[in-house]
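Could you join me in thinking about how sequence relates to backbone shape in a protein? We need material for that, and I hope you will provide a protein of your own picking. Once you have written the record down, we can walk along the chain together:

…
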Amino acid sequence: NTGSILLHNFRDTYAVLLMLSEVIPNDWKIFYKEHPTSFKTFRGNNSFLIKNIDFYKKLKSIKNLKFIDHEFDLIQLIKKSQCVATQAGTTGFESIVNGKPTLVFGNCWYQGCKSVFKIKTLENLRDAVQKICKGFTPDKQDVLDYLHAVCESSQKDLTTYKFSLTDPKNKNILSSNLPSQNKKLSEFLFKKYKEYYSN
């Protein structure tokens, strides 16, 4: 059977694709899928400024690479793949939850899970692909334990805001909700710091 890697959207796409194409078995394919919001225009989305036609022409020149429609069902792709490669997308966590290995090239909240391959060098990638070829799959109990640890280390009723701090429309949130939320977050972080580093 032909293997495949589902590649999720991230900043250094071209460099990582070159690494993958060098390391994976010859009968594997790399399936590249953009995030569904990549082609939508809204404030804060700079995808269209970075990924022009030349960017996609460069990707197309990489051997064994196939483009997947950005609206194609992600879970279906994950289940048919040998593994998922991502910088920090939630796709990586969806992959290990569905029993598929994940290669993480960036920094994300789930990279500490032992069932995730954290890729920093070409040698890391070679070792990970070898293990996957030999049948490696994420440990279900490890994933559950990691989720439990995340939940235990989380603060309930804490809201984060993603908006422009300079937009006048957000003045009310900035003056009322944000200070109390920031105080709650700082107290939580200080508490956890003392728990982990007091000794």
About this structure: The chain has nine helices and six strands.
